[in-house]
């Protein structure tokens, strides 16, 4: 038995990644694809790498007949998503990949996204989509809010440490290195190959990046008190992958043991032997997350490094993992593809 | 039912690519892995991107018990392969990825590889592994010789044109652009990131590349007369992918029609609409080959462009496609993974 | 003594490259910079890599006072250039980097650029800017039309061969590999890092690229009869550099000798020893052009490979070389910067 | 007047970078080049990008006649340098680019480099080569020890802050991102293009990197008490450039003001306006260092980001800047080349 799914926003990178993963997922079947400005086109003309697949033509959202569709992936831009999802059938299961439903507190949403939320009822209903920590809620949810890709990476490194209380909550620093596909298919000069390749820079430094809203919400909820982390992202000349170097104050061996124990049974989260350092190359195009821990020469200081693929585990793979839960399919179905190297 | 396979030479890129593909191939199971200098190590230590898999430890070849193994992939360096395969059990099915058994004529082998062949009986037995053109022979073969990755790309563009006689056989030119993984894991200065990235150069120009031996053998056999092509490879700052720009003298529409007809039923060979130009990005990490055809402004001249991934369709994917045939499995099993983009 | 120059279109890559080169050119001083949409900005805000220089603010063209300016570099888009240059003072020396004045025949211009030329008098006056072949005319010219970067590369490989009559004029094929900065700062999806890196494709295949207009004009003029070449460009995942693989029918040694003799005294054109193959890495960010020649295994066929940096020798370096001649400065002044490697 | 220089170790990247820079340095002339294993070869055969220069042939060091040579650049591997320099004429001025003479304390040397120092007298004599902070000593020195490239980057961000006492000395964290040319021309699998491109990883995490020896020595000397920083380097898929993200506890505006004041008169150190973030792309292939400062959202925490080109300002450019001082030439001579972008 296969479930029928629709993908809204199929002309972006996360939409295309959903199609790539579903292509060999035996439990899901793509019944509809939307892309407003490219409605009427074949997916093969928008993404020739999908040429070998038989896919429905791209439609406008309001042309889609949702009858018989079991679940809808929503890979639309932030802000427009609220309006679109509000207009969808209320019985339709939705996995949203935008930022619109990640923050439970409307005030926090407004602060980080610069405008009031336009669908407060949906926001209240949405379950935060970090699968390993919200499994039961996700399995029962109608609307799941996919996490930010950077937010997921940082949380995999930190959540068990915060919940076990083995680090100083007032001195957590996340220095993050991200590939460029996380910026989407945006036409900006600094994303051109000529300008991005061969160099690196920081952006949104100093606590301005929106994914901080997720860190604040989640870490504070776990700790039962406000937790504010430092977070400085950098853009790297690579397409896929995020590496988060997380600096904490806590005992290195305890930190390692805590993470290894927390994730021992997780199919996609792999804690490396103590001292081993992960590489984004080793999880590219896969749903795996590798985590390494080492001690600093200064006693009591620990470095945790987590890597994942922003388009897979950081968004579209996570979305399918959540959809599997919502549809009663095996959680790992369609997601066991090995990373691609070199 | 799954067939048990061994992979000899598992510490190179084609060996690792075999493991990557077999990881989600439901008809194959890896029973043994060899890597002489790394014997005793875990595959996860040689290739951390395979860390999530449960795999046998790396062994020396002579430590492997071939009892119960249905098929052996041999991903060893050229020349040593002959000796290794000579010593393997004579009833073992073998898919070889080296150059050792590609050339049927011992004199041609000696000319292109600079030494006499050391296993003439095996060479005589081997079937050339370009799946789409040797299906029946491969299905019955004990020893299949995987093609050169450049040789495969050029042949997909040209074989139907030569067999249908729609191009001038005395004026065929292949200008080829190759990614660096085709050079293997060799430690050479010009393969370092610092020296390879950001630029391009030609190598083996002027008819010196060994894959010419395959072109000569195959094209001459099809034509029933000697056919010598020009072939100039270039190394590009990319890891995977080959693009062959093939210049022929013949009618563009006839050329396109000939290729489209020849490959209409092929699961992995996709001829684009006339005038559309393929990109290596659209077949990365997959077993697909895209072929485009366009006419030049000079009447009677045609440009055929074929792209494939050297590690997949050009070697390890091809090897599995052949193994599927040899083992009576569906030809496409395990090979329908979508390309990875971006 | 230094000459005062203006640069129109300073917010594009060729404009920035002019500033980079003039920064250490002791005979030129930048007196004005234009960039219509960015007028009022500091150059350091448009191109932070030029932050260390003291430069005039960006202006609109009609705000510039051309009194006292000895020469104007015009790095504007095609088509608008005609109008802008028409409105400039008639006594101002101009080196134009656009395509607008490259084709002497108005009909050829209209054919390749899709519209009639709007400044026929200027077109008639313009001298083609391939320095080594138009030195005397350039030294006396008021308006010099910089060549296409691909057109320059192909001509360096071929002009002496055509003028000496040592190759078959009816069978010349240029397979060209170009870095992405040649496409300028255009915001197009296929120029994004996420889409361009890691792969290659051909564009304008089949005789559609506009630089063919230059090849036709120049080669036919040298030969005294129509010469039509085949020309297929490819886009590579690198920022700077063009490599033209030129296939000719002619004796390899004669071809090499002809080129070596023709360029023996040229400061920027280096013919490698017979058989040596050039790399774009060896001329990056410099005004040098390297040319290699080798014979094919098929007698009478020769491969000539020329490499240059599209932004330097292919446009802005060439422009300064021409400006030096026009201003009576040493031709090589400011242009002897060594390539950058790695 | 030009000074005659020798370059020992001319077949590595820093050696080649010295030649590149000296090529347009009007005060220096290359009189001898050494490369032991490549003795007898032309530099153009080792580094074809230098083909246009007239250079002495590569020699073994003991073949060089140092008579008349004013200064010797030593770009040899660590450890062998001590022996080589010990055997050089005692009146010869030397700028060393290795790590051998950077640490004044023999015990510190032995701890970080794993063996006792073999030339203690030279080590005692050597002046640390961070030009802006040791100008007077360098001008009078016979032997100058070039700094580590990472060490230089971190120090430019931190020295004035430590000396002015405006940050917490017990909580300094340097997260560093480095291009691959810093690893030299070493033949290692992880430096191959196929393995390095498209991803990132940390190395020597946890306080193991040898450049910590320099940080400890210098920062403690400035502070007059032990200062231990955290330092985690990462390898990025780019050839040139280092970006150091330095996290300090101190007032952002005071930090910015302190750096801006300290470097106001420096020709190569550029402090950006408060809040502006530097990019390695903007200093590539140049001797400039850009420094940005921003405040974190957590009061009292500041992020300082410094970028420089490891081969230029981080080693060979620094070496020439020091040589200029030692030879009585203008400090900036030959070093004002603009960065290369894109």
UniProtKB/TrEMBL annotation, chains A, B, C, D:
Stretches assigned to coiled coil: none
Domain Semialdehyde dehydrogenase NAD-binding: 4-141
Active site: 149
Record-level Gene Ontology MF annotations: N-acetyl-gamma-glutamyl-phosphate reductase activity
Entry EC no(s): 1.2.1.38
Domain of life: Bacteria
Catalytic activity line of the entry: N-acetyl-L-glutamate 5-semialdehyde + phosphate + NADP(+) = N-acetyl-L-glutamyl 5-phosphate + NADPH + H(+)
Xref: Pfam families: Semialdhyde_dh, Semialdhyde_dhC_1
Keyword NADP tagged: yes
Xref: SUPFAM superfamilies: Glyceraldehyde-3-phosphate dehydrogenase-like, C-terminal domain, NAD(P)-binding Rossmann-fold domains
Family matches, as InterPro entries: AGPR, AGPR_dimerisation_dom, AGPR_type-1, NAD(P)-bd_dom_sf, Semialdehyde_DH_NAD-bd
Keyword flag Cytoplasm: yes
Keywords carried by this UniProt record: Amino-acid biosynthesis, Arginine biosynthesis, Cytoplasm, NADP, Oxidoreductase
SMART domains in UniProt: Semialdhyde_dh
Pathway assigned in UniProt: Amino-acid biosynthesis; L-arginine biosynthesis; N(2)-acetyl-L-ornithine from L-glutamate: step 3/4
UniProt-annotated location(s): Cytoplasm
UniProt-listed HAMAP family: ArgC_type1 (MF_00150)
Record family assignment: Belongs to the NAGSA dehydrogenase family. Type 1 subfamily.
Function: Catalyzes the NADPH-dependent reduction of N-acetyl-5-glutamyl phosphate to yield N-acetyl-L-glutamate 5-semialdehyde.
NCBIfam families documented for this protein: argC
Protein name: N-acetyl-gamma-glutamyl-phosphate reductase
UniProt source species: Paragemmobacter ruber
Name of the coding gene: argC
């Amino acid at each position: 038995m296969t479930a029928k799914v629709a993908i809204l926003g199929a002309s972006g990178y996360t939409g295309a990644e959903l199609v790539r993963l579903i292509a060999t997922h035996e439990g899901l079947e793509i019944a509809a694809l939307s892309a407003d400005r490219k409605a009427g086109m074949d997916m093969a003309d928008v993404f020739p790498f999908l040429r070998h697949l038989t896919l429905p033509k791209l439609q406008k959202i309001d042309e889609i007949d949702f009858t018989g569709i079991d679940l809808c992936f929503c890979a639309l831009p932030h802000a427009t998503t609220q309006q679109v999802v509000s207009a969808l059938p209320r019985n339709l299961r939705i996995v949203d990949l935008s930022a619109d439903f990640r923050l439970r507190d409307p005030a926090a949403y407004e602060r980080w996204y610069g405008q009031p939320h336009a669908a407060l009822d949906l926001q209240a209903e949405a379950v935060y989509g970090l699968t390993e920590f919200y499994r039961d809620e996700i399995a029962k949810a109608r609307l799941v809010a996919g996490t930010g890709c950077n937010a997921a990476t940082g949380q995999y490194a930190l959540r068990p440490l915060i919940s076990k209380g083995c680090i100083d909550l007032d001195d957590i620093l996340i220095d993050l290195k991200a590939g460029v596909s996380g910026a989407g298919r945006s036409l900006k000069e600094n994303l051109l190959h000529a300008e991005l390749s061969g160099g690196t820079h920081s952006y949104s430094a100093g606590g301005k990046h929106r994914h901080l809203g997720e860190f604040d919400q989640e870490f504070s909820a776990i700790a039962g008190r406000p937790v504010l982390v430092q977070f400085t992202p950098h853009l790297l000349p690579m397409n896929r992958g995020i590496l988060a170097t997380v600096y904490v104050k806590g005992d290195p061996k305890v930190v390692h043991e805590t993470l290894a124990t927390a994730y021992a049974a997780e199919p996609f989260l792999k804690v490396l032997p103590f001292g081993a350092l992960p590489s984004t190359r080793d999880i590219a195009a896969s749903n795996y997350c590798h985590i390494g821990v080492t001690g600093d020469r200064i006693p009591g200081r620990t470095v945790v490094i987590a890597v994942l693929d922003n388009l897979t585990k950081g968004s579209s793979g996570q979305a399918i993992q959540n959809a599997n839960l919502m549809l009663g399919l095996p959680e790992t179905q369609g997601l066991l593809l090995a990373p691609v190297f070199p």
